[in-house]
Amino acid sequence: MSLATALGGLDPNQPDYAPRAVDALLAAAVAAGATDIHLQPGAAGLDLKFRIDGVLQPVATLPSRIAANVVARLKVLSGLLTYHNDRPQEGRIRLPVAQTSSLCRSPRDDSSNSEQSGNPSDVEMRVCTYPTLYGERAVIRLFGGDGQYQRLDDLGLPADVFEPLQRLLAETSGAIVVSGPAGSGKTTTAYACLREMVNHAGGGRSLVSIEDPVEVAVDGVAQSQVNPQSGLDLAAGLRFLMRQDPEVIMVGEIRDRPTAEAALQASLTGHLLVSTFHAGSAAETVGRLLDMGIEPYVLRSGLLAILNQRLLRRLCKCAQPSHAADDRLGLPVERVMLPRGCEACGGSGYRGRFLLVEMLVLAGSPELATAVLARADTASIERLAIGGGMSSRWQRACDAVALGRTSPAEVRRVLGFSS
Length: 419
Known about the structure:
Layout: H1 3-8, H2 17-32, E1 36-42, E2 45-52, E3 55-62, H3 67-77, E4 89-96, E5 122-132, E6 135-142, H4 159-168, E7 174-179, H5 186-201, E8 207-211, E9 221-225, H6 234-241, E10 248-251, H7 257-267, E11 272-277, H8 282-291, H9 296-302, E12 303-315, E13 320-322, E14 336-338, E15 350-361, H10 366-373, H11 378-387, H12 393-402, H13 408-415
Helix pairs in contact: 2-3, 6-7, 8-11, 9-10, 10-11
């Protein structure tokens, strides 16, 4: 049963409409493999959209007169204050997967793609509300289940990234930064790195984390969540964790100069640090850290490697070939596959996603170290990294297109039109 059908069978005049509509909405999102749910109030009603494989897709519209009740129900489930509708709020929901049995699974769920694999237990959700002209807007982020992407092997990393990363995770000091835009799977990769270290250490390493928020519990890691009300932000939490005799520290995200300074200082004092950072490329990560005011010598001495990643949609088996130059969208490939759409992929032409990565290794590269000390620009650092053997995101994207894994349009959607 589709969400539109399920909602159509409910009577908006009944007092239990909002609870039942929300249950159907959350269950349908989980069954569809959505990563985000958008509830957008407007003059015509409450528009419901799912973000599936990185793309927003409209699924239904609810009547305006019950929009406030639906958002209020979400606030109740996530422990938010229903009488505060003039300010942003954030809470969490834990949904047992058993609740999704009320809806039929979509055709996409039989995919053998790793994005659809795993047997998660409960699904964690973060609910954010925000006041708008037509009422409160709500966005729900669905975190990956505990059974998905547990180890590095599950991520589909290429061998020239997987093997060096494994070796670096055995180091005793230095920083490994996972960068990329929002929604690129950075935190999933960071958690996989933690599980890899826990598995290899067998309890012989002290692993701690400070996160905002804790998205998934990782056995063998002492995880902490920031609490701004008590003065425990990322930078302060990291300084306190240094006194907990850690060997490996994960910082959920480097967002500002104090956190960056504290994190990189930890990497210089005998700790292995793993963190995430918002940046468009591996070289841009270095440039942004320098722009934050981090001293070049700290980056040269502290950074081991930067893993930059994106998620590209994988073409469904219904894709069709094309030799037309216009279909290549400027990419240097001879033959491309284009999405067509079928029942199995829900008409989108794509099923699941795969990682597109580039890995800049500073450790053992005198040329890159010199460039960082000289505060070289992003383009110069990227040229040196590629000259030293790094496969760039663009090269990997073109290779994926040539192999028929994705389309030129998808590459341009994710990477844009810069060369």
